[in-house]
Design brief:
Bound molecules: nicotinamide-adenine-dinucleotide
CATH topology of the largest domain: Isopropylmalate Dehydrogenase
Strand content: 15-25%
Largest sheet: 10 strands, mixed
Number of strands: 12
CATH architecture of the largest domain: 3-Layer(aba) Sandwich
Helix content: 40-55%
CATH superfamily of the largest domain: Isopropylmalate Dehydrogenase
Radius of gyration: 21 Å
Mean pLDDT: 94
Order of helices and strands: EHEHHEHEHEEEHEHEHEHEEHHH
Number of domains: 2
Strand order of the largest sheet: 2-1-3-12-11-4-5-10-8-9
Distance between the termini: 29 Å
């Protein structure tokens, strides 16, 4: 087993296990062509972990993750756990894991495939050709800064949160964004609110300084309100968007709308040593167990894992090309509007796995609009 890439598989709750099974199926299809590559080890997280162990992130799961090169996660949560005390809520498992593993940058690609321009809520002419990545700082900013809380002052309550950024936190995420831009279209847009916030002024100053080490990458700055507008007016103008924790949270959900279905989009959270890959969607309790979940986001997480953790670019591109080909043939799961005969979750996984093997066997370089990785 030595030399294999260790993957912690944390399916979680709701549709998590259904979509993660398809991601693993497709990674095994890669192995069928290229020989043994992965050692998968499953662990509990979220509501299923609460039920089995009374905590959302059991020690055994932490140990599996610590001993893995990458983590493939489904989703956590569901109404049956909504009334639990905050510390035993499923989401806590995920938050704790991100913090423990030092995952300070979140990558959220938003790409609109030509075959799917029609399903976006925006006009085809606006979204066609969209291919951007949001690089969001994940461990700093207002979600973590102190002081925070609700206090009594002068006879009434006040709520306080504090946006804090240290220079090194901005530097490390900025480096990631510039490095990513170098293997895409060499353009970083840094997003802040420097006209109002001191933390943003520091952000802009540090990003500008780091940008001087990447003279081949074009850098521009946008205020967050302007960026929110341009994302839906002219999404094709963006390549890499670099931003803080809260702005990234909001902008990445906005960018998810561009592609048309929440079931298509993967994400990666990266630290110095660990990496976690998860679809952007939640556990979708309304469709769990009904074979209606779209596994494409989870399968695309597998491609991101191959790219960023395994450095297996050709296999990553093969998965992305397989997804694109299957969708181009008109194969659809039930989340796409207007399908009378959608395929099941596992059928979609089967078809993508078959296509991946075909691409890898033919040694074809998957077509990809980006320059290089
Ligand atoms: P959700 O993403 O689970 O679902 C929103 C809608 O999108 C639902 O109608 C759902 O059926 C649909 N949907 C989501 N993923 C789909 C897929 N792959 N294929 C087809 N349809 C899909 O968001 P929600 O309903 O707000 O939350 C449900 C639960 O998930 C909550 O408990 C929430 O806390 C949790 N959640 C978890 C994560 C995570 O694990 N990272 C993220 C968001 C929400």
């Amino acid at each position: 087993m030595q030399g294999l890439f260790r993957v912690a598989v944390l399916p979680g709750d709701g549709i998590g296990p259904e979509v993660v099974a398809e991601a693993v199926k497709v990674l095994k299809a890669v192995e069928e062509v290229q020989g043994p590559l992965f050692l998968f080890q499953e662990g509990l997280i979220g509501g299923c972990a609460v039920d089995a162990t009374a905590v959302p992130l059991p020690a055994e799961t932490i140990s599996i993750c610590n001993n893995s090169h990458a983590i493939l996660l489904g989703a956590v949560g569901g109404p049956q756990w909504d009334n639990k005390r905050p510390e035993v809520r499923p989401e806590q498992g995920l938050l704790q894991l991100r913090q423990r593993l030092g995952l300070y940058v979140n990558l959220r690609p938003a790409k609109v495939l030509d075959s799917l321009v029609g399903i976006s809520s925006l006009k085809p002419d606006i979204v066609r050709g969209t291919d951007l990545v949001i690089v969001r700082e994940l461990l700093g900013g207002i979600y973590f800064g102190n002081p925070r809380g609700i206090f009594a002052r002068d006879g009434e309550r006040i709520g306080i949160n504090t946006e804090v950024y240290r220079e090194h936190e901005i530097e490390r995420v900025a480096h990631r964004a510039f490095q990513l831009a170098r293997v895409r279209r060499n353009h970083v847009t840094s997003v802040d609110k420097a006209n109002v916030l001191e933390s943003s002024r520091l952000w802009r100053e540090v990003v500008t300084r780091i940008g001087r080490s990447y003279p081949d990458v074009q850098l521009d700055h946008l205020y967050v309100d302007n960026c929110a507008m341009q994302l839906i007016e002219k999404p094709t103008r963006f390549d890499v968007i670099l931003t803080s924790n809260m702005f990234g949270d909001i902008l990445s959900d906005e960018s998810a709308v561009l592609s048309g279905s929440i079931g298509l989009l993967p994400s990666a959270s990266l630290g110095e040593r660990y990496a976690l890959y998860e679809p952007i969607h939640g556990s979708a309790p309304d469709i769990a167990g009904r074979k209606r979940a779209n596994p494409v986001a989870a399968i695309a997480c597998g491609a991101m894992m191959l790219r960023y953790s395994c450095r297996m670019e050709a296999a990553a591109q093969a998965i992305e090309a397989a997804i694109e080909r299957v969708l181009k043939r008109g194969v659809r799961t039930a989340d796409f509007p207007g399908r009378s005969r959608p395929v099941s979750t596992s059928r979609m996984g089967d078809l993508i796995a078959i296509e991946v093997k075909r691409i890898l066997k033919s040694g074809q370089q998957a077509t990809h609009p980006r320059k290089k990785r």
